Amino acid sequence: MLIAGVDEAGRGCVIGPLVISGYLIKEEKIPCLLELGVKDSKKLSSKKRKSIISKIMDLSENFMTIYLSPEQIDKVVKSKRKLHKLNRLEAKTMAKIIETLQPDKTFVDAADVNEVRFKKHIQECLAVKTIIIAKHKADEIFPVVSAASILAKVNRDEKIRILREKYGDFGSGYLSDKKTRLFLKDWIKNNMEYPICVRKSWKPAKRIKNEKGTSQTLLF
């Protein structure tokens, strides 16, 4: 039986893409993932992820990664139509990955607070038959989802590295990171608009931009 895991990296960040990866493996090889020390990517150091990623890929039958740009994310977040919100975009993207991998069974990390609803959204976009199990924290429960999580995280880290080379050190891209917050403030202070790598629809990003506008009004 062919088993797939699907997970994302970068959903909550304000800078960089949302990365969704799918990982396909024969069921009998799953214990090999455990032997590699595969677990939720957030619980592994960057060094550990990089050291096992090639071995994870060698074990696979196939894998796939899709990058959702800040522009794509802004478009759905700004939309007033409920069907075009971020959860639906993730579900649609996961369905595309599942169709490519064509597993017998798929485990996904549910982005929606309602696991059943998220599973339904994926199934609505599928043209192939597969058993889907959508669970919260699936990357902590199922090794095949952990593998997908690592794949997504390593790919996102590489994209962030490239963006830093272009725009300067903005930290992790998450608002919990002081470097990221300072980067946004400094950039909007010196420019009229954020660069394309920033999710402009994120409330903190809009707030920083609006604060600049308010300051200018007071000065003049």
Kindly summarize this structure in a few lines:
The chain has nine helices and five strands. With 220 residues, it is α/β, with parallel strands linked by helices.
Topology:
Elements: E1 2-9, E2 18-26, H1 30-35, H2 46-59, E3 62-68, H3 70-78, H4 86-101, E4 105-109, H5 115-125, E5 131-135, H6 138-141, H7 143-167, H8 178-190, H9 203-219
Parallel strand pairs: 1-4, 4-5
Antiparallel strand pairs: 1-2, 2-3
Helix pairs in contact: 2-7, 4-5, 8-9
How would you portray this structure in words?
Helices cover 52% and strands 15% of the residues. It is α/β, with parallel strands linked by helices. The protein has 2 domains: 2-164, Ribonuclease H-like superfamily/Ribonuclease H (Nucleotidyltransferase, domain 5, 2-Layer Sandwich); 169-219, Arc Repressor Mutant, subunit A (Orthogonal Bundle). The protein has a 5-stranded mixed sheet. Helix 5 links the parallel strand 4 and strand 5 (131-135). Helix 2 (46-59) crosses helix 7 (143-167) and helix 4 crosses helix 5 (115-125).
